[in-house]
């Protein structure tokens, strides 16, 4: 068994129930296979003969973990959250695979809750309720009561979400007690890391999301087909983070597949070659690598310790018109041409409102827009635009036509990188995460699990 070696920083506070670690393909040679964490070889022949049959279509939907039951209702309610996050765009076959992954996640979650309770550091009800309320208000903009109704409407429940929160908080409590106190980073290690960062100034870094699916010679074709289906779902608007949490077999599944900021040299050569041709927001894959296939999503890229123009704060005015319902294409085209001519005649931002009033256009101002938060095409246009000028008109009959006028820009300052304390915190997070993965692996190994 091998694990991914190029994992970067992952904060404990984002840890959820992790998926299984990546499985490598068995070698065709008759060499013994070492059990992870053990020193004795497993006696596995190169060409095993199976006694009896195993029907892959027979799937068990519930489990008893150390005497605690995970029911079919638990699985379905958690599954409903994922389906909703993906806009309901999941076919029956994919939903069945997702259902089994949810069960594995619930098993991990149960083990984490049980271990925290045994160590006398469980997540208490007050912690859970406070986090649930924060999720409702910050993530969904709703009150806890409205959130509960929403969850019921999509086939889930507040109980299901609170159980997930309880598992996360319990695991955090456990890591703070049993792992963090024993992680030590020396001053020399931190200084060396800072020196390496300074030496790499100006080189490109990539923030990449990955979904890794393990495969061997026997199931390679099926795994590749599954990966292609996932890519298709993502292209249709599926959430990469949600798919990574449920499908990826890398240790980054718990943080939505986010590898953090890395250089291409840190990736396997196949992935590095693919990522080097990508623009932010693009997907690549499935890419075959040792042990399986990877699907990549380029979240962002930057140059180390170099000011990124996309971090500039823009002062913008949006000038827009809308078309009444039922407007024909010819009428809309004529109105849009009139709008474009008027906009072209505007003499700077101070003249925008007066000119807009002549044609019944609306002006909205915002002077705190970060360039990188805009769509890619608009980023490039606005960063090359003189102050007082506008973008070409864009929009549709349904959404109306608009332009953005640049009224000012505050360019970003060059940063000196993380200071000593920040670098130490990053290194501690990374080391804690690695030990947390080993901790969870040991809990799985020692658990008594019955499938129903």
Write up what this structure looks like:
- The chain is of the alpha+beta class and 452 residues long.
- It has 3 domains: 58-201 and 415-451, Orthogonal Bundle (Triger factor/SurA peptide-binding fold); 202-304, Roll (Chitinase A, domain 3), CATH 3.10.50; 309-410, Chitinase A, domain 3, CATH 3.10.50.40.
- The protein has 13 helices and 13 strands.
- The protein has helices at 72-85, 92-118, 125-139, 144-153, 158-178, 187-199, 220-235, 240-247, 269-275, 329-344, 352-358, 376-383, 420-446; strands at 33-34, 41-42, 63-65, 68-70, 204-214, 258-262, 283-289, 292-303, 313-321, 362-370, 394-396, 400-410, 449-451.
- A 4-stranded antiparallel beta sheet has the order 6-5-8-7. The protein has a 4-stranded antiparallel beta sheet with strand order 10-9-12-11.
- Helix 1 crosses helix 2 (92-118) and helix 3 packs across helix 5 (158-178).
- The longest helix has 27 residues, at 92-118.
- The two termini are 28 Å apart.
- GO terms for molecular function: peptidyl-prolyl cis-trans isomerase activity.
- This is Parvulin-like PPIase.
């Amino acid at each position: 068994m091998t694990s991914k070696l190029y994992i970067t920083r992952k904060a404990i506070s984002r840890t959820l129930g992790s998926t299984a670690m990546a499985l490598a393909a068995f070698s065709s040679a008759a060499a013994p296979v070492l059990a992870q964490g053990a020193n004795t070889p497993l006696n596995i022949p190169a060409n095993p003969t199976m006694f009896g049959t195993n029907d892959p279509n027979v799937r068990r939907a519930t489990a008893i973990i150390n005497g605690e039951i995970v029911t079919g209702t638990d699985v379905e309610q958690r599954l409903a959250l994922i389906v909703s996050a993906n806009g309901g765009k999941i076919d029956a076959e994919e939903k069945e695979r997702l259902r089994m992954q949810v069960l594995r996640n619930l098993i991990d979650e149960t083990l984490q809750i049980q271990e925290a309770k045994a160590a006398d550091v469980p997540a208490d009800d007050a912690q859970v309720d406070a986090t649930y309320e924060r999720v409702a208000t910050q993530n969904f903009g709703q009150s806890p009561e409205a959130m509960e109704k929403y969850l019921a409407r999509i086939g889930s429940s507040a109980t299901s979400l609170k159980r997930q929160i309880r598992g996360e908080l319990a695991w955090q409590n456990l890591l703070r007690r049993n792992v963090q106190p024993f992680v030590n980073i020396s001053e020399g290690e931190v200084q060396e890391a800072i020196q390496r960062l300074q030496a790499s100034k100006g080189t490109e870094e990539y923030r990449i999301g990955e979904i890794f699916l393990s495969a061997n010679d026997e199931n390679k074709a099926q795994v590749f087909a599954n990966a292609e289906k996932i890519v298709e779902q993502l292209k249709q608007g599926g959430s990469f983070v949600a798919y990574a949490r449920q499908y990826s077999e890398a240790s980054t599944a718990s943080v939505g597949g986010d590898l953090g900021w890395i250089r291409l040299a840190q990736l396997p050569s196949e992935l590095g070659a693919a990522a080097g041709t990508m623009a932010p927001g693009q997907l690549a894959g499935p890419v075959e690598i040792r042990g399986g296939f990877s699907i990549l999503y380029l979240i962002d890229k930057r140059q180390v310790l170099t000011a990124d123009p996309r971090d500039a704060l823009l002062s913008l005015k949006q000038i827009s018109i809308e078309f009444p319902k039922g407007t024909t294409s010819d009428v809309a085209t004529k109105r849009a041409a009139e709008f474009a001519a008027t906009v072209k005649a505007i003499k700077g931002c101070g003249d925008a409102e007066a000119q807009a009033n002549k044609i019944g256009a609306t002006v909205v101002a915002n002077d705190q827009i970060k360039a990188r938060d805009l769509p890619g095409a608009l980023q490039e246009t606005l960063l090359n635009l003189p102050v007082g000028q506008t973008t070409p008109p864009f929009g549709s009959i349904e959404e109306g036509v608009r332009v953005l006028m640049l009224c000012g820009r505050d360019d970003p300052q060059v940063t000196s990188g993380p200071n000593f304390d920040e670098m130490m915190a990053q290194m501690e997070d990374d080391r804690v995460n690695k030990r947390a993965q080993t901790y969870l692996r040991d809990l799985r190994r020692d658990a008594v699990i019955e499938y129903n």
